[in-house]
């Protein structure tokens, strides 16, 4: 496929610079975290094959328009699951869904090598096929831009090392305007123009001339959601740094984690930054307006795993949810830093959690790498359906007033109506 065709197929941010008006007018429901969520969909069987019976998930992210979510797993595969028009049957409990999936993935995309990171185009909308794309990066591969409606590869963004061999990005993120892809490498950040696939890029060292700055592999990145030009990058050197998006000027470096940084995320107002590390039991909250001290720490069970554990902040920006090795999702109040509640999401490490962008729903992923004894001739560990799985959760919402009648979201039928007719 020629480069001109790639360009014509790439999304045009100029035509999708604003959000869907219906989403702007939509009032996000206040989720009730004191009521355990219902599990509405469950997926495990399709993640296991004869060639890889111990395959496990590594993360999950909901699309910006909420129409589908994307999973990454150890079999080097990305899977897209479309949200069904109706999901009336709850699958609570950890036995009834052991041998059956709610439905099959709508798209399956194989990367060939281990997937390091993936992210959605920020203005993705199923109603506009041109914008239905996401990016991924895998070992020994360039950055791939995938078509989320067909599963086809749109184009690639390639970086080369000093030996003129392709070098893979360890983390990627679209800038808020959707015009560039920022990619993290070893002591480097490369910036690709979305409309110019190929090997053209800007390159910025994370080390200053006096050798100060950020060293190591740039392992996680996130932009401030308020379009203030702030970019946070985590490194396996246990540091997180704040940069200016326009010129990659280093503003300051945050220290304190016990392990390499695996996830960074800004608060909805852009004033706070949340960082999590490998084999580190705490998520740190930083006030980026005065970055000297940690505001508070949020505990999660992750002291004994090298796995990347992704957390997420609900659309209203008041609570953060994180998984851990204990199989539970823990919910924290971001105003106080206090634990609110928890619920069991799996019988394994919950390594991913992602809120729906505007409905009171979320999805989780679980699993971890298992090692068989050399003398164990059985290659299968006979995992249950609640290990190495993905689930969709439906939360109760605070009461709403509709036609002068108060609707209690604890009521099963009414909460389901709210989901289907927001």
From TrEMBL:
This is Telomerase Cajal body protein 1. PANTHER family: TELOMERASE CAJAL BODY PROTEIN 1. Keywords: WD repeat. Coiled coil: none annotated. WD repeats lie at residues 254-296. It comes from Rubus argutus. InterPro entries: SWT21/TCAB1_mRNA_Telomere, WD40/YVTN_repeat-like_dom_sf, WD40_repeat_dom_sf, WD40_rpt. Residues 1-22 are annotated as: Disordered. Residues 8-22 have a biased composition (Polar residues). The lineage of its organism: Eukaryota, Viridiplantae, Streptophyta, Embryophyta, Tracheophyta. It comes from the Eukaryota.
């Amino acid at each position: 496929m020629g480069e001109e065709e790639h360009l014509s197929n790439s999304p045009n941010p100029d035509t999708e610079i604003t959000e869907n008006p219906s989403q702007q007018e939509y009032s996000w429901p206040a989720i009730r975290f004191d009521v355990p969520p219902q599990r509405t969909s469950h997926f495990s069987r399709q993640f296991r094959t004869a060639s890889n019976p111990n395959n496990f998930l590594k993360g999950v992210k909901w699309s910006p328009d909420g129409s589908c979510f994307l999973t990454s797993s150890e079999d080097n595969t990305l899977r897209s699951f479309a949200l069904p028009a109706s999901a009336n049957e709850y699958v609570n409990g950890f036995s009834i869904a052991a041998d059956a999936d709610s439905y099959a993935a709508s798209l399956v995309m194989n990367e060939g090598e281990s997937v390091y990171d993936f992210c959605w185009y920020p203005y993705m909308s199923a109603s506009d096929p041109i914008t239905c794309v996401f990016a991924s990066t895998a070992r020994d591969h360039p950055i791939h831009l995938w078509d989320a409606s067909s599963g086809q590869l749109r184009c690639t963004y390639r970086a080369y090392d000093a030996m003129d061999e392709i070098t893979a990005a360890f983390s990627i993120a679209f800038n808020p305007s959707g015009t560039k892809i920022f990619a993290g490498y070893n002591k480097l950040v490369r910036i690709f123009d979305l409309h110019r696939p190929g090997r053209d890029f800007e390159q910025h060292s994370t080390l200053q001339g006096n050798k100060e700055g950020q060293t190591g592999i740039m392992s996680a990145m996130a932009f401030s959601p308020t379009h203030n030009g702030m970019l946070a990058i985590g490194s396996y050197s246990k540091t997180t740094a704040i940069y200016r998006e326009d010129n990659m000027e280093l503003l300051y470096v945050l220290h304190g984690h016990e392990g390499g940084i695996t996830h960074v995320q800004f608060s909805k107002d852009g004033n706070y930054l949340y960082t999590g590390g490998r084999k580190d039991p705490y998520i740190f909250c930083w006030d980026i307006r005065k970055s000297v001290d940690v505001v508070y720490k949020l505990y999660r069970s992750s002291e004994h795993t090298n796995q990347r554990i992704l957390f997420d902040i609900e659309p209203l920006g008041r609570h953060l949810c994180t998984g851990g090795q204990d199989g539970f999702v823990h919910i924290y109040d971001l105003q106080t830093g206090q634990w609110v509640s928890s619920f069991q999401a799996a019988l394994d490490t919950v390594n991913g959690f992602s809120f729906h962008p505007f409905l009171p729903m979320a999805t989780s992923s679980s699993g971890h790498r298992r090692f068989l004894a050399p003398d164990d001739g059985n290659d299968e560990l006979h995992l249950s359906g609640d290990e190495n799985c993905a689930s969709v959760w439906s939360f109760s919402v605070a009461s709403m007033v509709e036609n002068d009648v108060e609707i209690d979201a604890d009521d099963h039928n009414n909460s389901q109506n709210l989901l289907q007719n927001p």
